[in-house]
């Protein structure tokens, strides 16, 4: 995949800052959008998010109406507003264009590199997330496109999505295919234990320490297009996975939802990376490691281990 250069983004830089663009570097990550650091002629920098087909590493596939296609300028802007109103840190907007948004370059470091030594930033993150999760809605979905009142309950949505991921995993992973019936029964059993709910919290949707920048001691959330109202247990399962021993449980979470969503997310983290590898995504070893780790976690649930 060819990356954008100075000539491609010079007009964007001029519109955002009124200055000439000296250098462009595509930053690590970004499977659905391009993330570029813009260096201007005075040495200052900004960050450009670019949503174009040429920047999307994902192979074409049928989109999940709720989880799929969690990318795009409009989703970013809606999420930016929702998180800002909830009190979370997000990058300041500099320019909004048709398929490009420029935000401030916060510098700093990813929380991923600071987990063992910046307890203050981590503490602030948990406080911010608690505030975000307390913003609620009687309907789930994207803040700008909430699902109808009579939409299927969230656990039903998760179950159907997980069964689809199970089918896809069986086509690619013989070890999972050999346990298909038992895994489906496990999903349905966990789903059956979930009680109804009529209120949903605002969640980031994919919040790992690599999606948190620390700037002047404050956590700032990035990759925010997946923001939606949903069961907060969905977020907490992902936080468990990504933060490991640094994760902080909170009281009041539904253990039945946590159990269902753990298995569902492990299946997702097998199916997604393997599908991404069908394309030309460059960081292939990392995706293979994610898939292999989660294959193990999926099978662990049939061995009496806690998953």
Helicity range of the residues?
A: 40-55%
Distance between the termini: 37 Å
Rg, rounded, reads 20 Å
Any idea of the CATH class of the largest domain? Alpha Beta
Tell me the strand percentage band: 15-25%
Which fold name fills CATH's third level, the topology of the largest domain? Aminoglycoside 3'-phosphotransferase, Chain: A, domain 2
Topology as a string of helices (H) and strands (E) = HEEEHEEEHEEEHHHEEEEHHH
Main beta-sheet strand count, sense and barrel state? 5 strands, antiparallel
Shape: globular
Alpha plus pi helix count? 9
Structural class, from secondary structure content?
alpha+beta
Annotation, overall tally of beta strands: 13
Sheet with the most strands: spatial strand order: 1-2-3-5-4
CATH architecture grouping of the largest domain: Alpha-Beta Complex
Tell me the CATH superfamily of the largest domain.
Answer: Aminoglycoside phosphotransferase (APH), C-terminal lobe
Q: Give unreliable regions as ranges.
A: none
